[in-house]
Amino acid sequence: MEEQIGQAAGKIWEVLSKKKSNVNISDLPKLTGMKSQLAYQGLGWLAREGKVCYQTKGQRTSVCLSGAECVC
Fold it and tell me: DSSP code of 66?
């Protein structure tokens, strides 16, 4: 399972690296073609490694890559 989550994290990183803006976290499963549970586990992996940052506005939480690419 750990290997699947790591691969999911890689796929999410690829999606986020191609985006020029924040991505709503609820859109990640659709954007990556993964089941929700696996997509959110992959996102947690990236968060634990400090590779993403989050922004919450009202009910909407979005995510982007940490560093220069991040517009959070």
Answer: S
| Residue-wise pLDDT tens digits, 20-30 | 789 999 999 99
Which is it for the CA torsion 47, 34, 37, 54, positive or negative? positive
CA 34 to chain centre: 12
Burial class (CB in 10 A: 0-12, 13-18, 19+), 12: buried
Q: Look at the chain and report how many structural domains it folds into.
A: 1
> Is residue 70, in this structure, part of any structural domain at all?
no
Task: List, for residues 1-19, the tens digit of each pLDDT value.
Answer: 989 999 999 999 999 999 8
Q: Whole-angstrom Cα distance, residue 10 to residue 60?
A: 23
Side chain identity at 48, as an amino acid letter? Answer: R
Q: Is residue 71 part of a domain?
A: no
